Amino acid sequence: MPDIVALGEPLIEFNQARADDPSAYLQGFGGDTSNMAIAAARLGARVAYATRLGGDAFGRMFIDLWKREGMDTSGVAFDPEAPTGVYFVTHGPQGHEFSYLRAGSAASRMRPDQLPEALLASARLVHASGISQAISATACDSVFAAFEIARASGAVVTYDPNVRRKLWPLTRAKAIVMATVAMCTWCLPSEDDAVILFGDASPDAVIDALHRAGARGVVLKRGAKGCIVSDGSRREPIGARRVASVDATGAGDCFDGAFAARLMAGDDPFAAARYANVAAALATTGYGAVAPLPRASDVERALLA
After folding, report:
1. Domain total for the chain?
2. 98: in domain
3. Catalytic: 253?
4. According to the 3-state scheme, what is the secondary structure of the chain?
5. Which of 85, 157, 229, 245 has its CA 20 to 30 A from that of 269?
6. Which of 253, 256, 268, 298 does the annotation list as catalytic?
């Protein structure tokens, strides 16, 4: 049985990878919770993914990918009436920009009654994100249902708000995110999420607000500034690892997967976050969301450097 089950929307990625030729794209894979799951699998965790895919070539490519990564795909279903989602990444002076073709995707048609309940109930940790909730009302309900199953079985629940303003109205986003925070063991927001949810509040104020909302633990991911970890009684800033970064796509997802993998390996959350900081940094040294995700040997080597 898997230690970790992640739920969400996978997306085929086309990433602009050459500054001298903006028409050149590399085909890859993305989707925040799929990235998280692959990162955790590469770092030694037993991982399953739960989603719906289109009955198309892209859907079959995802099944092949997850199987190559040693993941359990028993929670994946095909929808012959909907496509697998696609996105494009372009790069410029302001960083990377995403363009999506995901309306009506198979994953957005997820419903609570279609969830692989036995798989979710068997997991030691269940993960989902705000993006999974934003893509449709039924997908949102599916995340809540998955977390209810996890809580009932005593599993750890990890949640990355990953707020995307283009996907849903801000008022709804805030309400759904804060309701979900109340269900999670570990909330894993980025600084961008914090600004959207809490304005110009200080990092400590953000963490305090998330604890008051019900999160037992909080990791505030701060990119090049590292992260701050709080288990409710202890709070510790952890510095980032400096690397030659070229593309930050999926770095936060890598952090989530590495953090979950190390929790499942028995690390305390502070040690897990230190490990995840290094893994996330290494994930920025190549192009795309999945290709640069590190293996355990890569992270261990970097920790010793």
Report:
1. 1
2. yes
3. yes
4. CCCEEEECCCEEEEEECCCCCCCCEEEEEECHHHHHHHHHHHCCCCEEEEEEEECCHHHHHHHHHHHHCCCEEEEEEEECCCCCEEEEEEEECCEEEEEEECCCCCHHHCCHHHCCHHHHHHCCEEEEEHHHHHCCHHHHHHHHHHHHHHHHCCCEEEEECCCCCCCCCHHHHHHHHHHHHCCCCEECCEHHHHHHHHCCCCHHHHHHHHHHHCCCEEEEECHHHCEEEECCCCEEEECCCCCCCCCCCCHHHHHHHHHHHHHHHCCCHHHHHHHHHHHHHHHCCCCCCCCCCCCHHHHHHHHHC
5. 245
6. 253
